[in-house]
Amino acid sequence: EMQLLESGGSSVQAGGSLKLSCTASGFTFDDSDMGWYRQAPGNECELVSSRNRDSTTYYSDSAKGRFTVSQDPEQNTLYLQMTSLKVEDTAVYYCRADFGGSYQWGQGTKVTVSS
Hints:
- This protein is mostly beta strands.
- The chain contains no helices and eleven strands.
């Protein structure tokens, strides 16, 4: 059974840092493109960052310069290092595996940034 399990969400003050983790089971990152998404209350889910099978990465405008996506193949874990956090980064963060048309989502981890 394929699963994604996120962790690392917490409450932090603006300017702080957090590192989110997404551990995969039942498949490896060679099988999928991986993305970090977030959904803030009242907002649509948005792509924050991605790391594809060919190692190319993507960052949204809001994430550029502040967030870094990486992975540890041995741990089968995807990371999102977030720095200089802003109040508007408050959201539930999800990781998603894209198998080329079919998807697997994690349950999400909550990030709250206070001023």
